[in-house]
Amino acid sequence: MFCRKIGLVLITLLTFAAVSPAQENDAEFYSGTVTITNIDIEIDGKTSERAVLRELLISEGKEFRSAARLLDVVDTRASILKSRRLFREFTWSIEFPSPDEAEITIRIVDSFTLLPRPMFKYSSSTGFLVGAKVEYFNAFGTLTDQTLEAYWSQQEIKGSLIVENIAIGMTHLGLGYEQFY
Description:
By secondary structure, the protein is of the alpha+beta class. It contains four helices and nine strands, in the order H-H-E-H-E-H-E-E-E-E-E-E-E. The protein has a five-stranded antiparallel beta sheet with strand order 5-6-7-8-9, with no helix packed on it. Strands 2-1-4-3 form a four-stranded mixed beta sheet. A hairpin with an 8-residue loop joins strand 6 (127-136) and strand 7. The longest helix has 18 residues, at 2-19. The termini are far apart. The model is unreliable at 13-27 (pLDDT under 50).
């Protein structure tokens, strides 16, 4: 009985070891600096290659202290992009043709990200408000998000414009503007 349990544990461990991705094994094997020699990006939609490279913090010729560090940076930044739900499909892979070179392949299929909708509100100070809200995620393929709102009532007109996820290095900024009449 005890031997059977040990056998099951060993089979399970070997199965998980055999299923692990090759790029992680390659990353552990190559411990020296790694330079990105080629980035192949295929985009089906409006997103610009420049915006994707900026968000992933990679460029051709950029050097990383190890293959594991390169994998960690790309995986973390790609996860952040995927979580924003801007794409129907987002896949990437890294190949190591030699111990000090990396080639990255990225495939993106954009989704429809322009969302217009009517808005209705009631305020005790201004009464019934009628308006519209237009949200444009990944505006013009730049990976920034823009929101335009306008409300009308008998007493006031309110408009606002918000631009978010403006990437400056690793920092993302947001700007907003409101106007009352």
